[in-house]
Amino acid sequence: MLKVSDLHVHYGGINALRGIDITIEENQIVTLIGANGAGKSSTLRAIMGLVEKSQGKIEYNGEDLTNLPTKDIVKKGIVMVPEGRRVFADLTVEENLILGAYTRKDSNGIRSEMKRVYEMFPRLKERSWQKAGTLSGGEQQMLAVGRALMIQPKVLMMDEPSLGLAPLLVKDIFEIISMLHSQGNTILLVEQNAKKALEIADYAYVLETGELVLEGLGSDLLKDSKVQEAYLGEAK
């Protein structure tokens, strides 16, 4: 479905990604784990065309997306929920959701999708006319996910969705990810909470300083002694 081949990204003299190869099949949850600065977010941003690729290829269902502008990648159905949520703080919840559907022209479909988002996140419906900047961190994360869903994505990429949230809200976010997956969504997840990510992932990749060092089924990596020691705090 979505294939990344030999991806390289440079920031000035820094080689942030070095030959990344990943594949996301339809209706999978694929996760990227690794320490800060490993290249996880850079991978998502490169797929979305938000950073320049110095080498490599991005394909979606056999179509080359490598040099497409971000807006055209979104039109293909590939959407990212950014790190830090990035909601429009001075706009209402409903205005944020409407902006999420900016590539769509079908007003009836937009209303239908908003109804679905509100059914999924009742707290957003309760706060539909509240400014997004006044929401709690967990509510803002729900809004960021809901905004991405407004476009009916085929691939939903999520960058650190649990970052900065209280443990109870982290549990809620991972339940939301599992629910989206059960509804047929394909998800590429970047997450520092490696244990939670591996528990729900079909497949996982481990990045270290811009390189892939390990990959496998999420359940297998969860039991891998090197992964446990490096990322799960379980020395062997």
Structural features, described:
This protein is of the alpha/beta class and 236 residues long. It folds into two domains: 1-77 and 154-236, P-loop containing nucleotide triphosphate hydrolases (Rossmann fold, 3-Layer(aba) Sandwich), CATH 3.40.50.300; 87-152, no CATH class. Helix content is 38%, strand content 26%. It has helices at 40-47, 70-75, 93-100, 107-120, 122-126, 137-149, 167-182, 194-200, 218-223, 225-231; strands at 2-11, 14-24, 29-33, 55-60, 63-64, 78-81, 155-159, 186-190, 203-208, 211-217. A six-stranded mixed sheet has the order 6-7-8-3-9-10, sandwiched between helices. Strands 2-1-4-5 form a four-stranded antiparallel sheet, covered by helices on one side. Strand 1 (2-11) and strand 2 form a beta hairpin. The longest helix has 16 residues, at 167-182.
Considering the chains and any ligands shown, give keywords for the structure:
4-stranded antiparallel sheet, 10 helices, 6-stranded mixed sheet, Rossmann fold, alpha/beta
Summarize the structure.
The protein has helices at residues 40-47, 70-75, 93-100, 107-120, 122-126, 137-149, 167-182, 194-200, 218-223, 225-231; strands at residues 2-11, 14-24, 29-33, 55-60, 63-64, 78-81, 155-159, 186-190, 203-208, 211-217. By secondary structure, it is an alpha/beta fold.
